[in-house]
Amino acid sequence: MCLAFYVSGLRRVVLGRPKAKPSSLAGLETVPATTSTTTSSTDSLLPHRPSDYLVVTIGWAIAVVAAAIFPLDHPQVERVALFVHLISMAVGFGAVVMIDVYGLLWMFGHRALSELTALAAAAHGVIALGVGGLLASGIALRPDVTSPLAQLKLFLVLLLMLNGAGAQRMLQRLKLTMPSETRGASIPWAVFQRGLAAALISQATWWGAITIGFVNATAKH
User: Fold this and answer.
1) Contacts of residue 75, Cβ cutoff 8 Å, sequence gap at least 6
2) Which of 10, 198, 178, 8 is closest to 103 using CA atoms?
């Protein structure tokens, strides 16, 4: 709650109050009165895909079970898996950082919604490839799934995957319901909060998983 009040105040300082619209455009300002109608019509346009979360969870579960049941104990395989793991982390996390930075720039008025959604559409496949590479290569790195730290890392990985799926769907909804030039002070406060929460969860889970992976790797040597 304190964070929300702080961010609200910071947003007002940086963006100021929205300027009054000319009277000729007053008839266009009907968004608040038709929010529920617009949302319901948008939901009908968007594909209902609870399977997104199901597919993410199943993929994560398969990787965890495979790492526990089929540990690959071969030095050469482990070296190749480590290389793939590092490359996948660089690719996936790099794309995530770029989207999160663009999201913050959008929320504070320095990018338009169309720029954010275009970048997210291009980066979505890159992030999926990076996360998939992390899961696949992680199987060959022989993680100790009984370790509390490893279990925490696995939970963070699942959380970042689910958060990414939710953020992607939120951007699709915004693209259909808001003008392409929406930015900064014209963003509804509820959308601002959801976007900020998604960015914070994204960074916290990625950095947490990377830190735990580093700690576990150094403990082996």
Assistant:
1) none
2) 198
DSSP string, 63-114: HHHHHHHS----HHHHHHHHHHHHHHHHHHHHHHHHHHHHHHHHHTTSS-HH
pLDDT digit string (tens) for the chain, length 221 residues: 333 333 444 444 344 544 444 433 333 333 343 444 444 444 444 555 568 899 999 999 999 998 888 767 778 888 899 999 999 999 999 999 999 999 999 999 999 999 999 999 999 999 999 999 999 998 888 788 888 999 999 999 999 999 999 999 999 999 999 999 999 999 999 999 999 999 999 999 999 999 998 888 787 65
Closest CA to 133 of 176, 185, 83, 173: 83
**142: Cα separation from own chain's centroid:** 27
User: Residue 38 burial (CB < 10 Å; 0-12/13-18/19+)?
Assistant: middle
CA-CA distance, 152 to 156, in Å (whole number)? Answer: 6
| Predicted TM-score of the model (pTM) | 0.76
Length of the chain measured in residues: 221
Please compute Rg for the chain using Cα positions. Answer: 21
